[in-house]
Amino acid sequence: MLGDGLLDALSMFWQTLWALFLGFALSGAVQAFVTREHMQRMFGDHRPATIAKATFWGMVSSSCSYAASALAKTLFRRGADFTTSLVFMIASTNLVIELGLVLWLLLGWQFALAELVGGAIMIALLGIIGPRVLGGRTAQEAREHLERSESGPSGGHGGHAHHHDASGAGGAAPLRERLRTRAGWGDAAGYMISDLTMIRKELVIGFLVAGFIAVLVPTAVWQSLFLTGHGFWSSLENVIVGPFLAIISFVCSVGNVPLAATLWHGGASFGGVVAFVFADLIALPLLAIYRGYFGLRVTARILVVFWATMSAAGLAVEYLFRWARIPEPAPIRAMADHGFAWNHTTWLNLAALALFAVMYGLYRARRREAAAEGRYAKDPICGMQVEIANAPAHRRRDGEDFYFCSDRCARHFDERESKTMSENLGMPGSTPPAMQHDPNGTHRDPVCGMTVSPETAAASFEHEGETYYFCSRGCRTAFELKPEAFLTAQ
């Protein structure tokens, strides 16, 4: 039975391989040839025209939920309207090309069309509701919390405020010239590989979960979750339950489409599956990220608004398609039933793999050039290539700079560094600082023992009425997480 689940997962992946590559390749090209600064200048308000522009640029941007949340945060921090930033984030995960192609292949063209129609409805609803529920004082609260979080030990760039053209070296050159250069397409390949790197876990989890659920979970279980036979009330219950399953599934971005295929086979309504697909942005890991960016109260409002608009869009699409007499696709059983036939899908996948090899070669060559130019760095957590000028997060440890694809990776880095410091403190031969300050006015960093001056200390922290000074923000982070571990020997 486990073998059947794995075969189902592999079959779904093989069926969608060429579409995934095409979508990520097109997204990488747009990211390489269109500057971020150009996008950010357009998002200063929430007028209908601005919402439409944010939707378009989101559609051709990164499909990774984590990257989308980081970029939306960056847009908001640089002056974009809060609602417009959230619209950009929704469009960049729910209206991207690769999502539509995978939906078409796994669920049918009706779901691909529902993605576009429902996405437009959801964004229109957010454009109406957002400024009233997430604007004004709420947006100001989100901005203030973001500024505080980025100025503290777990913040983002800190003083790293310079920005370059997102198109990299030669970015000032006209678009037509950039399209003819190997460096330009090398950057496009870099963005494509970066998107795939960021989303690889979600894709693997999504296909595996869908494959095993299709085999291990009886249809009766899904039928018990999704009501049927009660007309409108069944449809309403389905579009509410769909996002809830997305929240607890932990699967984001394109990775939740295979699971959506399993739900569709299990008896969920058309609108319920659509709402589930749209709800990738309120999975628990993303909600934790929003809380770090904007605070708990604002995150709760985002959850309510997103859940409501996603459910409403799913319900509207279901009834709109019924009115237009668009037939619902037949539930698709496991892809493994069809086997790996030598057909047009096989040829498309082979062509995609060949083109991927070419793009990967361009990426490797461009990475070597960019490393020599000092434009890119490697995220120490996930390993993806990060453009230094536009990195969502930055840390400095012992004179060395680290750049991250998202604040999520930066937090993992902080936690890893804090754990390492705590372990080193308890190692034989390691001696915690015996005293916090010397008579001559200098202080000892309670974490690493380094002598620091209050005037030049990188960070400080007040604990039980006493101020401690640190050589770096990393030491402050370690101390703030568990001060008693560093004060026991004092």
From TrEMBL:
InterPro entries: DUF318, Ferritin-like_SF, RNR-like, TRASH_dom, UPF0718_permease, YHS_dom. It comes from the Bacteria. Residues 379-417, 445-483 form the TRASH domain. It is a multi-pass membrane protein. The keyword Transmembrane applies. SUPFAM superfamilies: Ferritin-like (SSF47240). It holds the Pfam family ArsP_1. Residues 140-171, 421-442 are annotated as: Disordered. The chain crosses the membrane at residues 12-34, 82-106, 113-134, 203-227, 270-290, 302-321, 341-363. It is found in: Cell membrane. Coiled coil: none annotated. Residues 140-150 have a biased composition (Basic and acidic residues). The keyword Transmembrane applies. Its main location: membrane. Gene3D superfamilies: Ribonucleotide Reductase, subunit A. Keywords: Cell membrane, Membrane, Transmembrane, Transmembrane helix. PANTHER family: PERMEASE RV2963-RELATED. Belongs to the UPF0718 family. This is TRASH domain-containing protein. The lineage of its organism: Bacteria, Bacillati, Actinomycetota, Actinomycetes, Micrococcales.
